[in-house]
Amino acid sequence: MEIPYEVKARRDTGLWNAKIGIWLFLASEVMLFGGLFSSYIFLRLGVEPGVDNPWPTDVQLVRYGFVNTLVLILSSVFVVFAWLAIKEGNWKKFQAWMAAVIACALLFLVLKGIEYNYKLSHHGMRLIDNSVVEGVVLDKTDRIRFEANTVTLDVTTGSTEFLNWIKKGENPEFQLKGEDGQLKNVGNVASWAKKMRRKTNRIIAASRSVRWKAKRKGHEPDPEALKPITRNYTLVSVEPFLVYADDARLSAYDDKVMNFVDGTKVTGKLLGDSIKFEVHEVDLQMIPTAKQDQALVWKLINDDAVKSGWNHARDEEIKKMEKYYLEDRGESVPDRQMSSRRVNVHGFHESGSDGHESAKSEGGHDKAKEVHGEHADAKQKGHDVGAEVELGSHGEIVIEVPRKQKKFLSNHGPAYGTYYAIYFTMTGLHGLHVIGGIVVLGYFLFFGKALFLKDPEHMANRVEVGGLFWHFVDLVWIFLFPVMYLF
Amino acid sequence: MSASTTTHDKSETGGDHHDHHNPPFWKKYLFSTDHKMIGLQYGFTALLFLAFGFFLMMVMRWSIAYPERPIPLLSELPWFQIWLDDEGKVTGELYNMFGAMHGTIMVFLGIVPLAFGAFGNYVTPLQVGAPDMAFPRLNMASYWCYFVGGVLMLISFFLPSGAAKVGWTSYSPLASMTDSNYSNIFWTGQTQWLLGMVFLITSSLLGAVNVLVTIINLRAPGLTWMRLPFFVWAMLVTGFLLLLAFPPLEVAAIMQLMDRVAGTSFYLPTDVLNNGVLMDAAGGGNPLLYQHLFWFLAHPEVYVLILPAFAIVSEIIPNNTRKPLFGYKTMVYSVMVLGFLSFIVWAHHMYMTGVGASVSTFFQTTTVLISVPSVILLTSMLISLWGGSIRFTVPMLFATAFIPMFGIGGLTGLPLAFNLIDLHLHDTYYVIGHFHYVVAPGTIFALFAGIYYWYPKQTGRMMNTFLGHLHFWPSLILMNGIFLPMFIQGMAGFHRRAFDGGKAYEQISSQVFLDGDSLVAKIFHGGEAIQMLDLNIIMSTSAWLLAISQIPFIINFFFSIRFGKKVDSDNPWDATTLEWATPTPPPHGNFAVEPVVYRGPYEYSVPGAESDFSPQNEPDAAGDTAEKEETV
Amino acid sequence: MVDSAEEIEKHKKAYWAVGIALLVFTGITVAVASFNFLDFGEPGVSAMDVAVGLAIATFKSTLVALIFMHLNHEKGLIYKILLFTCYFAFGMVILMVYSLWNPIHAAF
Lengths: 487, 632, 108
Ligand code: HEM
Ligand SMILES: [Cu+2]
Prior knowledge:
Chain A has helices at residues 17-45, 62-88, 91-120, 189-217, 223-226, 296-301, 304-329, 335-338, 352-360, 364-371, 418-447, 449-454, 456-486, and strands spanning 123-127, 132-137, 144-154, 174-177, 183-185, 232-245, 250-253, 257-260, 265-272, 275-283, 343-344, 398-401, 406-411. Chain A has 487 residues and is of the alpha+beta class. Chain A folds into three domains: 17-117 and 430-486, Four Helix Bundle (Hemerythrin (Met), subunit A); 133-140 and 277-411, no CATH class; 144-245, no CATH class. Chain C is built from three helices and no strands. At the A-B interface, helix 1, helix 4 and helix 11 of A face helix 7, helix 8 and helix 9 of B.
């Protein structure tokens, strides 16, 4: 059986099957990315000033996006040349062009990876008064440090949340007090919990059915079935072990107890819960200019040099705005331009100079400076006040934030805000398309020769279809680049 | 009339020139690329899911009718007890879970795969005279994606969290944070629901591309656009709806998945609370974003549920009235307009979310507009009956019942289009009644009709008529027994998704439906007033009886494979369309000779013709060659 | 269609030209966005910047679609499919934004 119009075009539509197929597929892709762009617009326009986080517009590594755009455009050009090579009947040339395409695609992914990595290794923290600090969490202090010795589990949930948070390298061994009062090793806690869940559920079920059957027949149920059923079991660790828990997964905690959301109770001793944070930038956009002096960050930073340096930078910014609006245009400055943007606090603190030296060699810091290059001129020498300051690995000031004063803390990953969410989702999906393209085009490159020799026209059709997909991937990026990186 | 002798035996001896004489079992039945086998795979899987969805519903109906009694049978099963309360009664949690999965399974795993996957796959290539789908391997991939999606949904029942519980609409922010107390958020019902949906969507997209290309490019010579059977037109529009409406749902599902697994806040507003505690999320998102994306899909989706039903019914009606379909061209244009408008009505599901007056007005207007093409379709079918000498075969019974049943469903939808009325009726049993009339006695009846109608094509035997009647009449009555009272309850204010059927709401449950001195109450209720709540018992009893009345169908279905009456030709219904010009059952590659089409799809009782039907591939006496030439 | 040798040559020229144009316009977009003296509208990101950026992006993608994806001479059917798609995609964006701008507490 042969399916018609696989290679040759049908007369009335003028098209072969796969050509219609790929365009239909691209139509659905248009709707996919259309949905994503709609979401982007919806989320961005939906930002309510003063309530939601402002939409960030200056946080991107534009350089990477720019180079990636160029790379994708070039690969798009190469794809058409690969197709022309097939049309000319030149397999060697086709291979060369196609290899270039795939090289570009791989380069794109590598750059993307570097960019992702940079974002994922930087943090931002919103304090309860909505002032924001950006920088790096030190020593894993985003977690609550706890020394635990006993664990009480509700086995009917089958959930063993606390295991996820035991410090790496710790290998606690748990024992359970049996009915005879003897301590018994439980071995692997997760599988023990699963077993207990099944067992307890069976007991619960049996007791229920005994009770309601008795009720239906109108006599007293067997007293066995009325006995309370144990759901909570307490495991005792042979030696105390360290738990570094994410507070989002705790429903409550105090000096002695941590309650996980799945109902697990871990008892022991709280070692510390404050967050050590190396501050790169201070962002007070959510706080009206007049109140910025009282912002919580300044109590935490407790270094007047930094504060006044920051204030100075903000005032410069406002002056610039006033010049632009009042002098050049004769309008008053709109509110949204009055609040300061994020200001890089590097070098504001007193002992900044040597911190600066030591930071230079660490590399990471330079990038941060470039990203916020437009504020480089705001960097002013601070006044000579201030006590000893601790400096982090980037040579910046380190603050210690009590957990109660933190509202939200995350790395600059998708969780950090709706912008980051849509950025990672869209570029991630786009990246998956790139990978898909590599697979398909790579298949043509390495396994296409047989078909090329047998039926060059069929091969040309295939390359055309693959190329159409590849152009579409490029086309999406052409929009993603300005939308995500530039504004 | 070359096709009127049966070619049944010939194809079984493999006497044709097609390749793969004896493919191994797994290739023939599991990983087949033959569109008919894939259609059957779709059909069987979907029927199983329909039955499962029906079972879930029966449990829910018990809880609604008798919230104070333990659930029979299930409460005897020891392992099931954890989902019941201490007295063996259905818990709210279980009700929510079964409700959400009933909706999901019925819509995405039952009706769509049966209507578009099974009938679309089996019949479309035959009707356009193609040897197979345009991309047979993609077709197989489509089925297996569907299968994996279904399996994920089923697996989720056995997770500690149970399956998804937040409704088939899966609204955020609830859906973004539900089950977040389980340590492994990945293996929770809602997350698996989302993953399953991603597979189902992929499957639908592949299927849609395939059907569309087949219709566009593989039509037999002479089969011009306006000679396509209406079935094919409806499949074309359905394909476009699936193709273009599903991607936004995919976006919505992916973003909800991100909310759950990656901690994003696409749908979480700033400072959102979870169980009274400030959620650890950045916020800034918008739950309405989810609703927009969801309903952008889900309104076209209801046309995906109903257009295949129109497709099937409009094949059966002309065949059994022995006269052409009334207003074929109008119907074709209507169905296109319907598809077109269906993308801009979605926010009529969102009147209650606080959309403003001008937005409401816009969507209200488009919604009323879209009822015009729907009514045209329905009216054309109705008029097609006029003056025909109708053969009331079993498929025809179901097809005729479809018309008033869908009519009730459609017309009760009109009031919902209006913002003000919807504010009262939104999320009540009125809405449940409305769309169930469309899908249950509507689409499902049409699907039954299709099964009875095309059964002889695959098996070479007819289904039993007596059992067919035994299936049809109780089903018709009971369907109305279930869904008609829902309108009354809904207008009285009964809220949907209430696991005790509204009993807990004193004001609602004390409402009287019929006074004690009314005749009905005197006869059936000993002179006591009949309350609104009593309707729950009527509806639930009807639902369980409906289950029983499907037994004749099941018996009929399997029994007739071996013992049904043998057909005496390839075209037992004396139909005109191309699928009846194939051998029985159609072999791999379908047609013994490549068909050429000479005429429109519904040339029944053509004056002067020697029989009362003129198949599309039957050449006219003269004058055809020229036309064939220009319309290849 | 590209079947003869000279047609292929013609195509090659066109493809290079388009490729270079795309690269140049990318540069322009970045320049406009990052240098203050090229800033349109207000300081910072303003509606004007967005309009200019999107206009350039639209132009670039039109080039890709027309030349690389051969939409400058395609069959009618493909145009029809794309036309439908655009209608739905734009319908989605516009109506969603419309509903965002018209919440229930807004004036009619
Ligand atoms: C004929 C048999 C059917 C009966 C008796 C039935 C009954 C029900 C009941 C009792 C509910 C729950 C109402 C509530 O608590 O809110 C429900 C919901 C629903 N049903 Fe059915 N149903 C049937 C067939 C179908 C079919 C064929 C579909 C296919 C589309 C379907 C789709 C739905 C949907 C989408 C919901 C809403 C689920 C939700 O609340 O999230 N049903 N049905
Ligand atoms: Cu709707």
